[in-house]
Design brief:
Strands 4-7-2-1-10-13-12 form a 7-stranded mixed β-sheet, with no helix packed on it. The chain has a 6-stranded mixed β-sheet with strand order 18-19-17-16-15-22, with no helix packed on it. A 4-stranded antiparallel β-sheet has the order 8-9-14-11, with no helix packed on it. It contains 9 helices and 22 strands. The protein has 466 residues and is α+β, with helices and mostly antiparallel strands. Helix content is 23%, strand content 29%. 47% of the residues are buried.
Length: 466
C-alpha cells in the first residue's frame, strides 16, 4: 500500500499542510472548560523529514497564544501568523531524519473561517463539537493539515466531570480527579487531521446490537430525551455494518461510535471511527437512515482509503452516496438502478459545469458532486457486472487500507477488472462536464439474489450513561 501524496501545496488550500515532512504520531493533551470556552493544550508530534533537509517547516494552528515550541528538545525560532506556525529549528533537520515537535498553546477555541462557514471546534450551548472537514483541524490543535499526511493519535481531554468526552478510537482510560475527568483515546490507524472528531456533552450511552465474538463494537451517545427515537432510527446500523463488511471487506477500525448532539447540524459529519449527527437527524421514523448508511460507508471510503488532496473528493462522496443506494437495494427499498435514475433526472435539469475529477474549491461540496459521484460508481458497476464490480470494490478498500489515493489510481484499479477499455467511460463521467446517458445494469439487481443480513436486537441495549 502506497500513500500517493501530492507534490507541493494542495491546489485548493495552499496555506494548509507542508509536504516537506510527514507526521506519523500525534500525542495531544488538552484541558477544556465549557463555561468560559477556555482551552489549553500540549502536543507532541513525531515526524520524519522528506527528501530534502529541513531548515524550516510549518504547522497549521489557529489564533491561540503560543506558550512554548521545541524541536528535538531545543528552542527554535518561530512565527505564528494567519493560522501558520512557521518553525526554524536551531539546527537543520537532515533529509529522512526523524524529529519531534512540542507545542504548548492556550486560548478560546473557535471555528476556522471558510467558504462554507465556520469549521472545526464549535462551542455548543452546553459542551463542544469538532467537525473539521476540510480545514477545521487547526481550530484546536497544531497539525500538518493535509489529508494525505496520516498519523496515529493519542488524544487526552480533561473537562468537568459532568461532561462525557467522545472521540474516535479506543477509550484507554477515564480518570476522575476532584471535579474533573480525563479521557484518553487511542486511534492507532493512520488518520487524516480533519478526521480527528470530538464531542463534549451530556449523553446517554447505548450499545447498538450485540457484536458477538470478533464483531465491531458500535456505541451511540445521545441526549437522554432522544433515546426512544434514536433506538428506532439507528436500529438497523448493525445490519448496515454486516452488509458493508460483506460488500467492501472488513471494517477498517476497532470500533464505531455515533454521537447525536442537542443542537441541529446542517449535515452529519464523518470522523475516524466516529460520526456526528444533529438532533434534527433523529425523528423516530428512520427519516435520515440513508445518512446513517452514508456516514458509516465513509469509514471505508474517505477515512481508511483517504484522498491525496481535495481535488479527488468525489472518491469519498461518490462511494458513500453509492453505499446509500446499495443499502436501499439490499434492505427492501428502491434499487440502485431506480435511485440512479432519480439522480440522473435531477442532474439533467441542473447546470452542466461540474468536472467531477477536479471540481474546484467552490464546487467540492456541491450536491451535484455527490449525485454524479454515485452515478459514476453505478456506471462502473453496469460495465463490469456485479461479480467483477464487488471484487473491485473489496480490492480497492483492501489494497489502499490506511493509505491515500488519487482518481488516476482508482481508474487504473477498476480497469484491471474490466474485459475492455474503460477510458471512454471515465472521460465522460469524470473529465467532461456534460452529463452522460443513464447507465443500466445488464442483469437483475443484487437485491434479487441476497437479502439484508439479520436485523439487530431492538432497541439498543443500555451501556451506561455519563
Amino acid at each position: 500500500m502506497a500513500v500517493q501524496q501530492s507534490v507541493g501545496p494542495d491546489p485548493y488550500f495552499p496555506a494548509n499542510g507542508d509536504s516537506r515532512y510527514r507526521v506519523h504520531r500525534y500525542e495531544v493533551a488538552v484541558d477544556y472548560r465549557p463555561g468560559p470556552n477556555r482551552l489549553s493544550g500540549t502536543a507532541r508530534l513525531n515526524a520524519i523529514a522528506g527528501r530534502a533537509a529541513l531548515s524550516e517547516f510549518q504547522l497549521n494552528l489557529a489564533d491561540f497564544k503560543i506558550g512554548r515550541v521545541r524541536v528535538d528538545g531545543r528552542a527554535p525560532h518561530y512565527t505564528h501568523r494567519g493560522g501558520r506556525l512557521r518553525v526554524r529549528p536551531a539546527k537543520p533537520i537532515r533529509a529522512g531524519a526523524a524529529f519531534t515537535v512540542e507545542v504548548h498553546w492556550s486560548g478560546n477555541p473557535k471555528p476556522v473561517n471558510s467558504p462554507w462557514g465556520g469549521l472545526g471546534w464549535e462551542e455548543l450551548t452546553d459542551g463542544a463539537l469538532v467537525a473539521s472537514q476540510p480545514i477545521g483541524a487547526p481550530s484546536w490543535y497544531p497539525c500538518n493539515d493535509r489529508p494525505a499526511d496520516k498519523a496515529s493519535y493519542q488524544i487526552s481531554i480533561t473537562t468537568p466531570s459532568a461532561y462525557q468526552v467522545v472521540a474516535g478510537g479506543r477509550l484507554l482510560t477515564r480518570t476522575a480527579k476532584a471535579s474533573t475527568t480525563t479521557w484518553v483515546y487511542e486511534q492507532s490507524a493512520p488518520t487524516s487531521s480533519y478526521l480527528v472528531g470530538l464531542s463534549i456533552g451530556k449523553y446517554q450511552t447505548v450499545l447498538l446490537g450485540d457484536p458477538g465474538p470478533g464483531g465491531v463494537p458500535q456505541h451511540g451517545h445521545i441526549p437522554a430525551h432522544l433515546l426512544t427515537e434514536f433506538s428506532r432510527d439507528f436500529a438497523r446500523q448493525p445490519a448496515m455494518m454486516e452488509l458493508f463488511e460483506e460488500l467492501f471487506g472488513p471494517y477498517p477500525f476497532g470500533e464505531y461510535a455515533v454521537v447525536v448532539t442537542e443542537e441541529e447540524l446542517d449535515v452529519p459529519v464523518e470522523a475516524q471511527g466516529l460520526s456526528l449527527f444533529g438532533a434534527n437527524h433523529v425523528d423516530g421514523a428512520r427519516g435520515s437512515e440513508r445518512l446513517v448508511a452514508h456516514e458509516l460507508a465513509h469509514q471505508w471510503f474517505g477515512n481508511s482509503v483517504s484522498i491525496a488532496d481535495w481535488r479527488h473528493i468525489w472518491l469519498n462522496e461518490g462511494f458513500a452516496k453509492y453505499a446509500e443506494w446499495l443499502w436501499s437495494e439490499r434492505s427492501g427499498g428502491r434499487s440502485a438502478q431506480q435511485l440512479a435514475a432519480a439522480a440522473h433526472q435531477k442532474l439533467s435539469a441542473l447546470p452542466q459545469d461540474l468536472r467531477l475529477a477536479d471540481p474546484g474549491r467552490k464546487l467540492m461540496f456541491d450536491d451535484r458532486l455527490y449525485e454524479r459521484g454515485g452515478l459514476t460508481v453505478h456506471a462502473v458497476r453496469c460495465v463490469l457486472g456485479d461479480d467483477a464490480f464487488f471484487r473491485m470494490l473489496r480490492g480497492w478498500a483492501n489494497v489502499h487500507r490506511g493509505g491515500a489515493v488519487t482518481t488516476a489510481a482508482f481508474t487504473a484499479h477498476a480497469a484491471r477488472y474490466a474485459d475492455g477499455s474503460l477510458d471512454d467511460l471515465f472521460r465522460a463521467w469524470l473529465h467532461d462536464t456534460a452529463l452522460p446517458p443513464l447507465p443500466s445494469l445488464p442483469s437483475p439487481p443484487v437485491s434479487k439474489r441476497a437479502a439484508v443480513p439479520a436485523r439487530p436486537s431492538y432497541p439498543p441495549t443500555n451501556a451506561g450513561s455519563a
